[in-house]
Design goal:
Layout lengths: L1 E4 L4 E6 L9 E3 H7 L4 H7 L10 E5 L11 H16 L6 H13 L8 H8 L4 E4 L5 E4 L4 E7 L6 H4 L4 H18 L5 H5 L8 H10 L6 H7 L7 H8 L3 H5 L19 H22 L5 H12 L4 E4 L7 E7 L3 H19 L7 H4 E4 L11
Parallel strand pairs: 2-4
Antiparallel strand pairs: 1-4, 2-3, 5-6, 7-9, 7-10, 8-9
Length: about 375
C-alpha cells in the first residue's frame, strides 16, 4: 500500500487493477467519517496531537486471493493502519499495532483472535512463530519448503462469520463456562471471564485426580453431553441470560498448544512438523468441523503426492491448504497438484490455466509489515 498527502482536499483510494476495483474520490468531510473507528480516533485516545485528518492518496495492490484463508483482510487492515500511521508522522510499538488492527477487523464483522495480526506485523524471515500471545520464534529445519494450494472454495469470513467462524468460537467458549460451574468454580466474575477450555484445565485435572485418573477429559465426559445444547439449557445451567454474558466479551481462541521442543536432526524435525500439521488438520476437520469437501480432497492429494504434512489454513470452510514438502521435490509437487486437482477445474471452466500460479505456489516465512519512505 502506497500513501501520500493530497493537496486537493480529498481522500482518493485506487487499486492497480482499476477494472476490478473502483477509484472513489471522497471529500475530506466524508473522510473524517471513514476514519471514525480507525487510526485517527486511536491516536487522539493516546493523546497524540495530529491536527486535522490529512487528505490522502492511497494506492493498493496485492497478490493474496480474497477468501483464501491466507489473511488477505488482515493484510489490508495492517497495511492501511501502518500507512496512515506513517502519513501522520507518528509511531507505535508493534505490539500495540497488532492489538489495534485486531480490534479494527472486528468492525468488519470477524471476531478475530489476533494471531493473523501478530504474525503480519511481527514476523521474522525464516522463522515460524508459535503464537499464544507469548510469541516464540523457531528456526525452521533446513531442507523443507511450504506449498500453498487454493481449494477454490472461497470463504468470505465477513459474510459467513455468524454461521461459521464466530459461531464455532462461541461454541468453544460456552463449554468452558458450563464446566467451570459444574466443577464448582466461584465467584461469578471469574466464570464470566473464562475464554477457552484451557482456563478450566486445572479444575478438570483436580476432578480426574479425585477419581484416581490423570486425564482431564474425564470431566468433559462426565459433565458435557455430545448433543448440541439449546440456549434454554445453557441459561438454566448458568442461571444467566446468554445475551448479557456475551454482549461485551471478545472471543479468543488458542487452537494449537505449544509442542514440546525436541532436539532432533533436520529430517526428524521435518517429520515431526509434518505430523503436527496432519494432527492439526484432523482436529480442524473432525473435532472443530471447519473443513469442506474441496479442502479434504486437496489435503489427501497433497499427502499422496509426497507432502510430509498438510492442513487447511485460515478460518476454514474453504480457502487454502498449506503443505510441507522437501525443497528438492517442490517443483514436481506443484506440477502434480496442477494435474491431479486443478486440471479438472480448468477443463470445467472454473478457472483459467493461465491463473494456476495464483492458486498454487511455494513459499517460505518472510518478515512482517514495514514502512519504506520514497
Amino acid at each position: 500500500m502506497a500513501i501520500r498527502q493530497d493537496t486537493q482536499n480529498n481522500l482518493r483510494i485506487a487499486n492497480v487493477n482499476p477494472h476490478k476495483y473502483a477509484t472513489p474520490l471522497i471529500p475530506t468531510s466524508f473522510a473524517k467519517l471513514l476514519l471514525y473507528k480507525g487510526f485517527y480516533d486511536y491516536v487522539k485516545l493516546k493523546g497524540v496531537d495530529v491536527g486535522q485528518p490529512l487528505e490522502l492518496d492511497v494506492l493498493v495492490d496485492g497478490t493474496v486471493l480474497t477468501g483464501s484463508g491466507l489473511s488477505s483482510s488482515t493484510a489490508f487492515v495492517c497495511s492501511s493502519t501502518i500507512a496512515i500511521m506513517a502519513a501522520f508522522g507518528v509511531n507505535f510499538p508493534k505490539k500495540e499495532i497488532a492489538q489495534l488492527t485486531c480490534e479494527c477487523e472486528g468492525y468488519i464483522g470477524t471476531q478475530s483472535g489476533g494471531m493473523d495480526q501478530v504474525i503480519s506485523v511481527m514476523a521474522k524471515t525464516g522463522c515460524a512463530d508459535l503464537i499464544d500471545f507469548n510469541p516464540i520464534c523457531t528456526q525452521l529445519p533446513a531442507g523443507g519448503t511450504f506449498v500453498i494450494a487454493h481449494s477454490l472454495a472461497e470463504s468470505q469470513k465477513a459474510v459467513t462469520a455468524a454461521t461459521n467462524y464466530n459461531n464455532r468460537a462461541f461454541e468453544c467458549h460456552l463449554p468452558s463456562i458450563v464446566l467451570s460451574i459444574k466443577l464448582g468454580m466461584k465467584p461469578r466474575e471469574e466464570i464470566l471471564n473464562l475464554k477457552t477450555l484451557s482456563d478450566v484445565e486445572g479444575l478438570c485435572l483436580s476432578f480426574a485426580s479425585v477419581h484416581k485418573s490423570s486425564d482431564p477429559v474425564l470431566a468433559i465426559k462426565e459433565f458435557l453431553k455430545e448433543e448440541p445444547y439449546t440456549a434454554e439449557e445453557i441459561e438454566k445451567i448458568i442461571d444467566e441470560n446468554l445475551t448479557s454474558i456475551f454482549s461485551n466479551n471478545p472471543i479468543y481462541l488458542n487452537v494449537i498448544k505449544a509442542a514440546e521442543h525436541y532436539k532432533l536432526h533436520q529430517e526428524e524435525m521435518l517429520k515431526k512438523l509434518g505430523d503436527l500439521m496432519n494432527e492439526s488438520h484432523y482436529s480442524c476437520s473432525f473435532l472443530y468441523e471447519c473443513s469442506c469437501s474441496e479442502l479434504e480432497e486437496l489435503v489427501n492429494i497433497c499427502r499422496k503426492n509426497g507432502a510430509i504434512g498438510a492442513r487447511l489454513t485460515g478460518a476454514g470452510w474453504g480457502g487454502c491448504v498449506v503443505a510441507l514438502v522437501k525443497e528438492c521435490i517442490a517443483s514436481q509437487f506443484i506440477l502434480d497438484l496442477k494435474e491431479r486437482f486443478y486440471q479438472f477445474r480448468v477443463d470445467k471452466g472454473d478457472i483459467s490455466k493461465n491463473d494456476l500460479d495464483l492458486y498454487v505456489f511455494a513459499s517460505k516465512p518472510s518478515s512482517g509489515a514495514a514502512i519504506f519512505k520514497l
